[in-house]
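re: the backbone from monday

yeah here it is again, tokenized this time
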């Protein structure tokens, strides 16, 4: 079986790194590692999402679906300290990094869990995701089926979609 950043237990040898998230309103230093998505930099799709998406609700349950090492979850937690951020990923290494990054940044409102965990809320005030395009077009379309998507912004081949049920 091929090892991907969306594998539950990546077999890639550990190669710790650091990514600096520098936005007009947030600065974070996040630990990364091999076997997670974009371990060497904040990828352009995530940057577009963080720079162009509307401000998150100030309270409620917010979901970062496919959280990786936590750049979206941690930025949401900084921007909305009164909200609970549910960071979900299948990759166990990514979940450990996300939890460690949230703790190091002093963000007690981040909860890192695998999909289907019984503590996840049934409903969310809002959902953020930079979905794993490498899962394939068919799987990506299935992930978005049943939702109405409209383009909110675009940059360098990346699209920010506003999705509603």
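seq for it, each position gets an aa:
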């Amino acid at each position: 079986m091929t090892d991907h950043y969306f594998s539950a237990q990546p077999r890639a040898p550990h190669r710790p790194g650091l990514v600096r998230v520098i936005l007009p309103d947030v600065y974070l230093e996040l630990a990364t590692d091999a076997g997670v998505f974009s371990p060497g930099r904040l990828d352009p799709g995530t940057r577009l999402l963080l720079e162009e998406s509307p401000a998150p609700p100030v309270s409620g349950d917010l979901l970062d679906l496919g959280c990786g090492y936590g750049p979206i979850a941690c930025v949401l937690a900084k921007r909305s300290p009164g909200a609970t951020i549910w960071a979900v990923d299948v990759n166990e290494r990514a979940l450990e990094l996300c939890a460690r990054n949230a703790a190091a940044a002093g963000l007690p409102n981040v909860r890192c869990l695998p999909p289907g965990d019984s503590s996840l809320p049934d409903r969310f005030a809002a959902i953020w995701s930079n979905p794993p395009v490498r899962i394939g077009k068919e799987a990506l379309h299935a992930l978005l089926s049943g939702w109405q998507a409209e383009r909110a912004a675009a940059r360098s081949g990346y699209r920010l979609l506003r999705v509603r049920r």
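The first strand starts at residue 17 and ends at 22. The first helix runs from residue 44 to 52.
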